[in-house]
Automatic annotation (TrEMBL):
GO terms for cellular component: cytosol; glutaminase complex. It catalyses: L-glutamine + H2O = L-glutamate + NH4(+). GO terms for biological process: pyridoxal phosphate biosynthetic process; pyridoxine metabolic process. Keywords: Glutamine amidotransferase, Hydrolase, Lyase. It comes from the Eukaryota. This is glutaminase. GO terms for molecular function: glutaminase activity; lyase activity. Its EC number is 3.5.1.2. It is an enzyme of class 3 (hydrolase). Belongs to the glutaminase PdxT/SNO family.
Length: 252
């Protein structure tokens, strides 16, 4: 049975473990760098990104997390986890925070507003439906949620969402440079995949819909199969050893 690590510093890690359990997959809490050696895939949950970053720094997790991503291990970031995985984040608190990186995108930390502006909405995700079945929409839970403003050429967009009329675009100077582009498109990106990295701005773990977890597990399984197929068996010539053994006396 597959074992998925879930970063358990703060946030909704228990909910992710419960969702994995419903699919028959074991999720284990990851709190220390050495624990990453016991898993081949990882979920970075939603939570308060600045707090999570401070705790990760305190436990010296950033070097191990970055190495985990660079090795091509499957990693999924939800909400705050998306911020962690982005190469660039704006709208951060004074002093900023460390990022794991690896995902070629620019994310705005609180694009959809403060805690009281959290919301739920039906989001179109045809790629998810084609791979996992079910309706083409899912119930997105956006809690003080980020959004991807720009994505690199190797990033596959899995879902986007219309820019709300009360978005921070009208008042937040930190996204002034991206303002015209976002307004022109009238939507922002809320789910992406780039190779071994999956990222969502919302919280699938807070719903009964486990399709995103199933999608990630299949990513992890594909990665394991590719790793196994790349192992070339070593042929050893044992004729020399056999000759030496035949020359030895045999005791009855």
């Amino acid at each position: 049975m597959a074992i998925v690590g879930v970063l358990a510093l703060q946030g909704s890690f228990n909910e992710h473990i419960a969702a994995l359990r419903r699919l028959g997959v074991k999720g284990v809490e990851i709190k220390k760098p050495e624990q990453l050696q016991n898993v081949t895939s990882l979920i970075i949950p939603g939570g308060e990104s600045t707090t999570m970053a401070k705790l990760a720094e305190y436990h010296n997790l950033f070097p191990a997390l970055r190495e985990f991503v660079k090795m091509g291990r499957p990693v999924w970031g939800t909400c705050a986890g998306l911020i962690f995985l982005a190469d660039k984040a704006i709208g951060q608190k004074i002093g900023g925070q460390q990022l794991v990186g690896g995902l070629d995108c620019t994310v705005h930390r609180n694009f959809f507003g403060s805690q009281i502006q959290s919301f739920e909405a039906e989001v179109l995700a045809p790629e998810l439906a084609s791979k996992e079945g079910g309706p083409e929409t899912f119930r997105g839970v956006f809690i003080r949620a980020p959004a991807i403003l720009e994505a690199g050429p190797e990033v596959q967009v899995l879902a986007d969402y219309p820019v709300p009329s009360n978005s921070l675009l009208s008042s937040d100077p930190s996204i002034e440079n991206a303002k015209e582009n976002v307004e022109e498109q009238s939507k922002v990106i809320v789910a992406v995949r780039q190779g071994n990295i999956l990222a969502t701005a919302f919280h699938p773990e807070l719903t009964a819909d486990t399709r995103w977890h199933s999608y990630f597990i299949k990513m992890a399984n594909e990665n394991e199969e590719e790793a196994s197929s790349s192992i070339v068996p070593i042929e050893v010539d044992i004729s020399c050893n056999q000759k030496q053994l035949s020359d030895l006396p045999v005791y009855q």
